[in-house]
Design goal:
Helix content is about 25%, strand content about 20%. Strands 1, 2, 10, 11, 12, 13 and 24 form a seven-stranded mixed beta sheet that branches. Strands 7, 16, 17, 18, 19, 22 and 23 form a seven-stranded antiparallel beta sheet that branches. It has a two-stranded antiparallel sheet with strand order 3-4. Strand 1, helix 1 and strand 2 form a beta-alpha-beta unit. The longest helix has 18 residues.
């Protein structure tokens, strides 16, 4: 591509979109965004509950497959990642959870100076436009509208919350407020019955300012590094390899793609790069390492009362819901599958919750080829409670399999490879049954379907969650941030150690995995990266 830019952003996902918005506020800057995927103007992207149709769609999804994992009973887990404007925010479940304040204080203590809770809270409030209104924690007037999600939640949400409350999990009106622990209704990145992805909230408004150029179908191949400085990006678009030069290069491809691109550019474990015939620009063994992700599974029951299965379980029901959504932006298709949820501690002595809950008036036990059957639920009144661990200790890695930039990297998860992760999950799945057995929810349940009442012994419960667990799509920490090049990949201003004019701004830089959904902290990272660059980082 002819001409130079002040900044080239690789990736138009959650972080990259927020970064483009922040930079574009300065009309003097010329910004280019390279996105390997295509447009987000697709029906099932815009329809909140349509994301099940995107789960196995290579048109919008990188469709990664992790290595077979002994901790998951040998399963090679499916890893969907957004390959589209908006990135994974265009195909996710839209839950807006920032994480526990202590998570950010952990980042500061790990060497990420300026990333403690008191440092990041003002940025969260600045980027948010929360429907619930502004207070000491929430923001109002920012570019990202966040729905309070209280108008159309399923009637089963209230008995769910009441059962949790009876077990000592307090009712919580705002998981992003004064405390995270408790059960309640999730806030969502949904606006007017449509998905409010990072592309919709940040990138498209930035493009209207006139100083942001977005190239779709443009896959980065390597960063051009000359004399210790990033000078541009080589990419392929429409079958042609092209080069763009820029004052700064910012990688925002996420926890899989950003370390992959660093390694393809010669930044990573030196011996591994040499073995593939790649030049070694910076020998840093931490690139691609320390990968962390939340693991989760569902317990499922047949109910005595109607659920969304009854609403969407027939063609007539789906067509009625579709017509309602198209005409009014309302109805069940205007929501996420996760109406409610919560956070709890498996040990009261813990300082913060270590488990996350997802309440779904829905079940999808019957598999269907080529999709996650969110729009085709089971033919009975099903109800599920999902669960994921907040701070697993297990670490995996992103590594190259080839010097070919179009070959997928190797994803090694090592799920449940730490004994403490196994012990926590065992306690947590027992809590799911306690919730289901507690009034008023218990009176509405007909029977447990999965894993089923025969699974009772600890060994059987462990075998079950190993067999049925999988990613909850929060990979992070694979190019982690820290002050010391000997232990990290980027510094607290997100600059790659040892290379000038090169930054990483996405979930890969998290020093540790936050306790909660990672879309909010990824957006925060892109937002703050824009501030650093405008301040002269």
């Amino acid at each position: 591509m002819d001409g130079e830019f002040d900044h080239v952003i690789v990736g138009a996902g959650s972080a990259g979109s927020a970064l483009a918005w922040r930079l574009s506020e300065d009309p003097r800057l010329r910004i280019l965004v390279l996105e390997a995927g295509g447009s987000d103007r697709r029906l099932f992207v815009q329809m909140p509950l349509g994301y099940g149709k995107l789960f196995y769609d290579p048109a919008v999804n990188w469709m990664y497959r992790a290595e077979p994992d002994p901790g998951l009973g040998g399963t090679a887990d499916h890893w969907p990642r957004g390959r589209i404007l908006g990135g994974s925010s265009a195909i996710n479940a839209m839950v807006w959870v920032r994480g526990h304040p202590g998570d950010y204080d952990d980042w500061r203590e790990a060497g990420a100076a300026g990333w403690g809770w008191d440092d990041v809270l003002p940025d969260f409030r600045a980027l948010e436009d929360n429907e619930a209104g502004a207070d000491a924690w929430r923001g109002r007037g920012g570019p990202l509208f966040i729905s309070s999600n209280r108008g159309l939640v399923h009637p089963l949400v209230e008995p769910w919350i009441a059962a949790c409350e009876a077990l000592g999990i307090p009712r919580n009106p705002d998981f992003n407020g004064a405390r995270q622990e408790g059960a309640g209704i999730y806030q969502m990145t949904i606006r007017g019955g449509r998905r409010n992805s990072a592309a919709r909230a940040f990138l498209r408004p930035a493009m209207r300012r006139g100083n942001v150029t977005v190239l779709t179908g443009a896959q980065a191949m390597r960063v051009l590094i000359e004399d210790g400085q990033a000078r541009g990006v080589e990419y392929r678009r429409r079958g042609r390899v092209q080069v763009v030069r820029a004052g700064n290069v910012i990688l925002a491809g996420g926890a899989v793609n950003s370390p992959q691109l660093l390694m393809l550019s010669g930044i990573g474990p030196g011996a591994d790069l040499q073995a593939l015939g790649l030049p070694v620009v910076i020998d840093n063994p931490h690139v691609g390492r320390h990968l962390r992700d939340h693991q989760g599974l569902n317990y499922t029951w047949r109910m005595k009362v109607p659920t969304l299965n009854d609403t969407l379980g027939s063609w007539v029901g789906r067509m009625t819901a579709g017509a309602r959504w198209l005409l009014t932006g309302g109805g069940p298709l205007s929501l996420s599958i996760n109406h409610g949820g919560g956070f709890f501690r498996t040990d009261p002595a813990m300082a913060r919750p270590n488990m996350q809950l997802y309440m779904q008036a829905f079940s999808t036990l019957i598999p269907r080829d080529g999709e996650r059957p969110v729009l085709n639920p089971d033919p009975w009144s099903g109800f599920s409670i999902g669960l994921s661990n907040c701070r697993p200790r297990a670490e995996g890695a992103i590594t190259l399999t080839s010097p070919d930039p179009f070959a997928p990297p190797r994803i090694t998860v090592n799920a449940y490879s730490h004994d403490a992760d196994v012990a926590e999950m065992l306690s947590a799945v027992k809590m799911l049954r306690r919730i289901a057995a507690t009034a008023p929810l218990a009176a509405l349940i007909a029977e447990e379907l999965r894993p089923g009442p025969a699974v009772q012994a600890d060994a059987d419960l462990i075998a079950d969650f190993r067999a049925r667990s999988g990613t909850v799509y929060h990979p992070s920490c694979s190019a982690r941030m820290g002050a010391d090049r000997g232990t990290s990949v980027v510094d607290p201003r997100l600059r790659v150690h040892g290379v000038g004019r090169l930054m990483v701004a996405d979930a890969s830089v998290f020093p540790t995995l936050p306790g909660g959904n990672t879309n909010a902290p990824a957006i925060l990272t892109g937002w703050r990266a824009g501030g650093f660059l405008r301040d002269g980082a």
